[in-house]
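Justification of computing resources. Each target in the renewal requires a structure prediction run like the one illustrated here; the chain below, 586 residues long, is used simply to show the kind of job we budget for.
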Amino acid sequence: MNHQQSLAGPYFRKYLWPFLAALACLSVESVSDLLQPTIMARIVDSGVAARDIGIVIRLGLLMLSVAALGAGGATGRNILASVVSYRFGAQLRADLFHRITSYSFQELDTFDTASLITRQTNDVTQVQAFVNGVMRIFAKAPILAVGGLVMAIALEPGLSVVLAIAVPLSAALITVNLVTGFPRFRRMQEGLDGVNSVTREYLGGIRVVKAFGQEKREVRRFAEANAELTNASTFALRVMALFGPAISLFMNLGIVAVLWIGGFRVAGSSLQIGKIIAFINYMTQILFSLNMISAIISSFVRAKASWDRVGAILKVQGSEKFEDVPAAVGGTPLGQGGVSVRFNGIFFAYPASHGRLVLEGVDLECTPGQLTAVIGPTGSGKSSLVSLVPRFYEPTRGEVFLGGQDVRELDLRDLRRRIALVPQKTVLFTGTIAENLRWGRDDATDEELAEAARLARAHNFVAGFPEGYRTVLGQGGVNLSGGQKQRLAIARALVRRPDVLILDDCTSSVDAITEAEILGGIRGSAANYTCILITQRISAAAAADIVLVLDDGKPVGLGRHETLMRECDVYRDICIAQLGREAVDV
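Resulting C-alpha cells:
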C-alpha cells in the first residue's frame, strides 16, 4: 500500500489545490443541501402553522438564496472535476507510455502486449472516472451522511434511535461490499486482457487465419474469452448489486418507523409536523448518501484493481532512459569511425527460460569492412547472439565489446545510434515510404533515401509507384509484398549510415539473385561497416569473409566457406540439404 501511495504522490501534489478547491465547492453545495430541510421545517411550523405570511416569505427567500449558493458550488466543482480528472488521465497515460518506452526487452517480456494496451486504456479510464467521481459526487456522500446525522439528531433527539439501528447495519453492508468486491473486479480486468489478446492475435494474423480457413476456430477462441469476461463481470456486478437495495431497505424501514413514531407524538402534541418532515428529509439524504457510498465502494474496488495494474507498470523503473541529457544512462561515448564487434565467451539464457542456455561459449570477432555471417539450424541462437550487441538483453556470462569497449560501459543512446538492425520480422509504420526510410535518420535528403534504396534494390519498385517515395503505406506495409517490405527495411538501416549493420535473416522473402545483389551493394559501398549477417542460406554465407556456425547454441565451426565445407559437418549438412549432394561433391 505504501508503494502504491508513493506512486500516486506526484499526481496528488500536482493537483492538490484544484482538488481542494473542488472539495470546497462541493462542501458549499452539501451544506446548502443540509440547511434546506431545517429552513423548510421553520417555514411549516412558524409560518404556515401560524399563518404568518411574512415568515413564509422571509424564510422562503433565505431558502432560495441557500439553493442558489449550492447551485454555484455544484457548477464550480463540476468544472474543476472535469478539468482535473481529464488532465490527470492524460498525464497518467503519457507517463505509462513513457515508462514502457524505457523498458528493456527483458522488462517487456514480463508483460503481455494485450495487457499493456488494456492498462494504458481501460484501466486508466477506470482510475480517471474514480477521480472525477470523487471530486463531483463521491466526497459529497460522507458530508451528507455525517451532516444529516448531526442535523437530524439536533433537530429531534427522540427519533435518533431509528438512526442508531439503520446506519450501523448499512455500514456493515458497505464493509462487506469492499471486502468481496476487489478480487472480483481484478478478475474482470484480467478477462478484458484475454479479450484484447485474442482480438490482437486475430487482427495481426488475419491473412494466415483466412489462408487456413480457421475463421470458426478464431470465433470459438473469441467466444471463450468473451464468455470468461462476461462471467467475471456478471459475477462481480451481481454481488455489488445486492448491497444498494439492502441499504435502501434498511433506511426505508427507518423512514416508516419515523412516520409511525412521529405520528403518535404529533397526535400527542409533543412533536411538530414540520420537524417530522425535516427529519424524513434528512433520512432521505442519509439514504441517498449511503447508496452513493455503496456506489463509491463499487467504483473504488474497480479503480483500486485498475490502479494496482497501472502501478505494476510504473513501479518498474525501466533500464533504458533516453532523456535529452548527456550520458543518459551513464557510461562513455564511442569513438568516431568504424568499430569492431567482439563476442567473448558468451553464455546466455532468457530471463523466463529458468536458466536454460540458448548460447554457450561463443567467441567471435567482426571487423570493419568485413562481412561476417552466422548460420545454423533453426533455434540455434543466431538472433539471440546479435540481440546482445545493442543490449536488448545482457549476457548471462561473458562480454560483448564494441570498438574495444564493453557495451555495458557505453552510453546506451550512443550505442544504439551507431547500430542499425534489420530484424527477422519486418516492421513498417503507417505513413509514406520516405517517412519510413527517415526513421534511419531524420535529416536524410531525398538523394540519400534514393541511394540507400538502390543499394537495397528497392528503388525500382518504389519509383514505379505513382507517388514514388510519397506513396502512403498501410499499417505494417500491408500494401507491399514480403520482399518489398524487407528491401525497404534494409534501405532504412542503410540511411542511418551505421558503424555496425546487423541483418537478421532479413532477406528470406527475396530471391537468391536479389539477395546477392543486395549483399554485393552493401559490401561495395560500405568499407567501414562492420556487417553481421544472420542467414539460413548457404549462398549468402559463401559470400561472407568469415562464417560462424552454431548448433544448439554452441559454436561448431568458424572460417570461410571452403574451410567449413571440409571441416564442419553441420555446415556441410546444411549445404547438402540446400544444394544437393551432387553440387557439394563437385
